Amino acid sequence: MRITCVSPFDFALSWKAFSLYAGSNASERGSLALWWEDTPTSLYIQQTGINPPVLEVIVDPIPRHSVRFWKHMREMLHADLDLKPFYAAAEGHPVLRGVVKDLEGLKPFRVPDIFQMLVTAVSEQQFSMEAAKQARERLVSSFGTRAGRLSLFPRPGDLADRDPRELRECGFSLKKAEYLVDLAGRFARGEVDPEAWKDLPDEELVRLLTSFRGVGEWTAEYVLARGMGRMDVVPAEDLGVRRVVGKYLGNGRLLSAQEVREVLKPWSPWRGLLCFYLLTHQRRTQMGLDQAQ
DNA sequence: TACCAGGTAAAAA
DNA sequence: TTTTTACATGGT
Asked: Which of A41, A69, A150, A263 is the most buried (most CB within 10 A)?
């Protein structure tokens, strides 16, 4: 299946940024494993056209309810996102001009499953990304599904009836384990309807998510930004955000959450996208990946 | 060896 | 109402 996207769009660049935070179901280049209608499904994506950008997507098995599936894919890949207005705004800024030029065509792919996104966000609370990632990998191997070569993230039903002490074994605190079991139960029992969340404004959705135990403001905003494609949402208290915004747009040092909000104010409605660009840019220069295409 | 890492809820003041 | 504390593991 082909997906034609709004230009500019650099799939390889976007995928590289995505695989750094998506976790184990997006390890190889362009391949992804996910649940679709309770079926382990593998995706392989590559870019076959530049202008207009065209993605070739190979899905196995053929998904049921394919119209909905392809709509989901377009959303996950931000096929319809037009970066040009954001670039036009950045053009006038001495630092950002260079940042967006280095990252032209970068789109922030969404974690394809909202439950996985919530689990990921909770796992990363007050913890190094590395420690959180390893705990999640243990979660996948203990409670996820292995189907052939595919390794799939646990579904809500896989966690809903567990004793939190079982999840504690993966390396989560007992409290986080309780949050995760509680969240899984809400999803598994159909108490939440992520489809209905799509039309809610950012603020209302944050309010809704923070009503869940274990989900504070940071976690909710993080989920909106990474899992729901909300381009204007920034978790301003986030340590990484406070550092990176200070580095590129502040005095070079760690900012307070309030300072982050002030500095980002003029960049609405692209505040979240801007932070994604800054974080990606920082990571690339830190890792010295610039030459590696 | 400590101490910090992309927070949160619950206890204590 | 506001402030303090416990919590998990990996990297430095």
From this structure: A41
